Design the sequence.
């Protein structure tokens, strides 16, 4: 398989994916480090039918709200990063982050056999 020559713009353009989590749902989005957060929200809009201005993305590792005008690389979002999605509520405020962790599924006394 031959590789295409890379221009300087393509430097650092290895495809990556991020995990966008909300409640019990995880969306796996393929993206490039150079993509702006707004472009990620546009991909999500197709999946969840929520306008981009009603979405907020938060890097779970740091709790930092991602800026629409900056790229993933600018905000240190790396391959396989987990990002929380919150949506705007009727009162114009954003909902709290609600991401279910795998530990939340383990019930006392069953030894975690539900995995």
Sequence:
């Amino acid at each position: 398989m031959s590789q295409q020559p890379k221009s300087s713009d393509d430097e650092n353009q290895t495809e990556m994916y991020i995990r966008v989590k909300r409640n019990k749902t995880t969306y796996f989005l393929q993206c490039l480090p150079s993509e702006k957060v707004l472009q990620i929200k546009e991909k999500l809009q197709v999946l969840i039918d929520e306008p981009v201005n009603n979405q907020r993305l938060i890097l779970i590792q740091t709790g930092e709200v991602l800026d629409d005008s900056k790229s993933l690389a600018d905000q240190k979002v790396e391959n396989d990063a987990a990002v929380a999605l919150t949506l705007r509520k009727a009162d114009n405020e954003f909902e709290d982050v609600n991401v279910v962790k795998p530990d939340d599924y383990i019930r006392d006394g069953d030894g975690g056999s539900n995995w």
Q: What stands out?
A: The radius of gyration is 17 Å. The longest strand covers residues 16-22. Residues 2-8 have pLDDT under 50 and may be disordered. The chain has one helix and five strands.
